[in-house]
Description:
Layout: H1 17-28, E1 35-36, H2 40-43, H3 45-54, E2 59-60, H4 70-82, H5 92-107, H6 121-143
Parallel strand pairs: 1-2
Helix pairs in contact: 1-3, 1-5
Amino acid sequence: MEIKNDSSMVRSRSTGCHDRSSASASSSRHGRRPGTDRGSEYTAARYQELCRRLGAVQSMGRVGCALDNAAAEAFNSTLKVEYVRRHRFRARAEAHLKIATWIADFYNTTRRHSVNEGLPPITFERHMIEKRHASSALLRTAAA
Length: 144
């Protein structure tokens, strides 16, 4: 991801702010795997070490398979369109903090997602867990 809100903020594909945001957001959500393409920022030793420290298991798509990275690409597009391009950041640390806060406080908890029946991800996950528990209880009852 490239942050270009201020000339002092230009950061190309490297292992800095983006890695910390990606790994922390990904690993904090129930041990999910950060899905990545084969870009150098994701195969870099620093990023791999960060994932190990955070307990995140990396998942990398196969060469030539566009579908492997579709969810990550959709998220990055949404992040850029709905947040990054609408704000100015004075420093990378400010961008990191504000983007991480947007993900944790809005994207995962409030923003509606069409793929989740119009619900925010956290609400959708709670509904799915409740449905699984109800289904398991029904199966246990039927088996008894």
